[in-house]
Design brief:
Largest sheet: 6 strands, mixed
Oligomer: single chain
CATH superfamily of the largest domain: P-loop containing nucleotide triphosphate hydrolases
Number of strands: 14
CATH class of the largest domain: Alpha Beta
Strand order of the largest sheet: 6-7-8-3-9-10
Radius of gyration: 24 Å
Number of helices: 12
CATH topology of the largest domain: Rossmann fold
Number of domains: 2
Distance between the termini: 45 Å
Helix content: 25-40%
Structural class: alpha/beta
Low-confidence stretches: none
CATH architecture of the largest domain: 3-Layer(aba) Sandwich
């Protein structure tokens, strides 16, 4: 298992902006990724997340700061010194990046061949990994004979060939359909669980984060604007961009058109109430509290989902009753959980 420490990292590209002005793609980012952790870095296009992953594997050099992979600071290392470090970093790509002229087995063998492993040993290792990712019988298939999910499984097996301590996944599921994406995420969880490999996911999909990440860093305009345990970020996002991401994986609130229609009816006040597997408030208590104050609630949206191994839910209610009673009910609920008035 390998710890990754990103400390005050900045990457500026010279002469790429308007009129040749420099562009800072990564701006003073610090992330501490524990050994054996699955850490997601999420952001919209242009946030700097893909540049960050290229810094971690040494494909780009940092302008300032340090990146420790284990005990080695790769910032400033020359190409020769980087080679053995890269041997401990596996890489999974969005478009698979398989060699079309090689079979599935040949693709997995390739990094071992480059490392100088004898043919018999690398063939045995590749066969073992092909079985691990569920592709026994596909040894002689070429990439064009495989589905997208199968190609990504080969890519994962290839990334594991050299027994890396860190696995980098750059938008590893964004080219796949939802069912296949789910299967690949399950495989990555298994890789993490069985091998103890530290996994760093680069993604723009909060659903990926919800499914498998232990911790998450949200990036915007090159900066890390929010970090924390995935569950905590889902339950109480702070930055506006984080709130937008969370809502894509928790479709629990009515959309703007429906909200406007509900408000136009003018029957009551709209609130979204969050509840967790450790909180004091669940759905029965919500309605008991409303009844205690003599008000009623009309459910306008809501749902329960799983974040990692834990449960998180939200319900959007139109609370109807006398204004003072509604105020009292909302205050009572607010004392126990998070309420957002819409």
């Amino acid at each position: 298992m390998t710890r990754v420490q990103i400390r005050g990292v900045t990457k500026t590209f010279e002469g790429h902006g308007r009129r040749g002005a420099p562009i800072t793609a990564v701006d003073d980012v610090s992330i501490d990724i524990a050994s054996g952790e699955i850490h997601a870095v999420i952001g919209y296009s242009g946030a700097g997340k893909s540049t960050l992953i290229r810094l971690i594997n040494g494909l780009e050099t940092v302008t300032a700061g340090s990146i420790l992979v284990g005990d080695i600071d790769i910032a400033g290392l020359g190409e020769r010194a980087l080679r053995p470090v890269r041997g401990g970093i596996g890489m999974i790509f969005q478009q698979f990046n398989l060699l079309r002229s090689r079979t599935a087995l040949g693709n997995i063998e390739y990094p071992l061949e480059v490392a100088g492993m004898p043919k018999a040993k690398r063939r045995a290792r590749a066969t073992e990994l092909l079985s691990f990712v569920g592709l026994s019988g596909k040894e002689n298939a070429y990439p064009e004979q495989l589905s997208g999910g199968q190609r990504q499984r080969v890519g994962i097996a290839r990334a594991l060939a050299t027994n890396p301590g860190v696995l980098l996944a750059d938008e590893a599921t964004s080219a796949l359909d939802p069912e296949t994406s789910s299967e690949v995420l399950d495989l990555l969880k298994r890789v993490n669980r069985e091998f103890g490999i530290t996994i760093i996911l680069i993604t723009h999909e909060m659903e990926v984060v919800r499914r498998i990440a232990d911790r998450v860093t949200v990036m915007e305009n090159g900066r890390a604007i929010e970090q924390g345990d995935t569950y905590d970020v889902f339950a109480a996002p702070v930055a506006e961009v984080t709130k937008r991401f969370v809502q894509t994986a928790l479709p629990n609130k009515p959309d703007e058109a429906l909200l406007a229609a509900i408000k136009a009816r003018g029957r009551g006040r709209l609130v979204t109430i969050s509840f967790t597997d450790e909180g004091e408030v669940d759905q029965p208590i919500i309605f008991t509290t409303l009844g205690k104050h003599g008000v009623t609630g009309s459910i306008e949206g809501g749902g329960v989902t799983q974040v990692g191994e834990r449960i998180f839910g939200q319900v959007t209610l139109e609370i109807i009753g006398e204004p003072q009673a509604v105020d009292a009910a909302i205050a009572d609920l607010r004392a126990h959980t998070t309420i957002e008035e819409l």
